[in-house]
Amino acid sequence: MAMDPGDAFRWDGELTLTRHDPETGATFVIRVDSIRHGRAAGGTRAAHYPSLTDALADAARLADAMTLKMAVSNLPMGGGKSVIALPVPRKDIDTRAWDRILRLHAENIDRLNGIYWTGPDVNTNSADMDIVGDTTGFVFGRSVGRGGAGSSAVNTAVGVFEAMKATARFGGMGGIEGLTVLIQGLGAVGGHLATMAAEAGARLLVADVDSDRIAWAQRFGCNPVPIQQVTTTPCDIFAPCAMGAVVDRAVARRLSASAVVGAANNILADAEAGSVLRDREILYAPDFVSNAGGALHLVGREVLGWDDETVASYTEAIGQTLTLVYQISAADGVPTDVAARTLARKRADAPEPLAR
Ligand code: NAD
Ligand code: PPY
Fold it and tell me: Which residue from 189, 298, 314 has its CB within 8 A of the most atoms of ligand 2, so it is best to mutate?
């Protein structure tokens, strides 16, 4: 949800760490939302923010979402997130400065003595986690060669695809074959999702600010949609897989889709958007349920010792969790995001044995 600037400071999470590095101009933010159910985990996002207040607010929202994601997935961890507020866009940071930024970030994490574990997120990857891992052990998602579980993106996409199938079933759309799926963002997750949906026979519409990604998707039959028309183009399933806050109340009122199912964290920009989607009978798959495949991969592999098969079966169960969310939403007459929070709270208080 969007926060007003004051909310960046009124946030009631466990801990906020900030540090500024004059040499690179980077400001580091770590927010630990909850450690009630285990040490907190959540990735490191690097981005250029309009202000430190925006960076703090984003970290708070993302950390909240991690607590909900762990709880609704029955994972024995709390939620946290790091934001590295860069002075310029990531592409304009040179290798030397980036290396320094990652090492300082790792120092900050190490000082928290394990109450917060990081991992990859937007603009950070396994190679970056290897560098973080030189300084601290509190890191998920290092490359496989360095003893980590590697990228979480593929399994995130697999989970989102399970969420799509469950949504299509619950919404009376049948299977994915023949449905029009509009994917916003063809990056690490959206790209894999596009290939899976295409293989399942969906008609794909795609949008990305990067023309190379569009050219790549056109090679397997995807049709591009202009960035400005993403929320007005008719489709069956709208899949935001780029940034958050894509659906505010105005977008929710005009969206021409039967469902919203994507990988992006914090898809809803305001509390009203969920209600509008419900009133319009557009099924919204709460992001912290649908995109939990990455957390299942990282925590499953690195904490719980899961093998491929176990990760796959828990990831498939995302579809069942989502169906339960839709049933709670229908029974209680509440938006699906509210229903998912209710389920997350219930599972946090009484974690269910991980269902397979
Ligand atoms: P990514 O950086 O690899 O991909 C993002 C893509 O979106 C890029 O191709 C970029 O060019 C494109 N993009 C950026 N702004 C856009 C815009 N305005 N319109 C259209 N396209 C735009 O990131 P990712 O790892 O694929 O993650 C995507 C989203 O999923 C993020 O919100 C992330 O937080 C969330 N998520 C990722 C994971 C994971 O395992 N990687 C797990 C959970 C949630
Ligand atoms: C996310 O799922 O949003 C993440 O940040 C990925 C993640 C999950 C669990 C531990 C570290 C990073």
Answer: 298
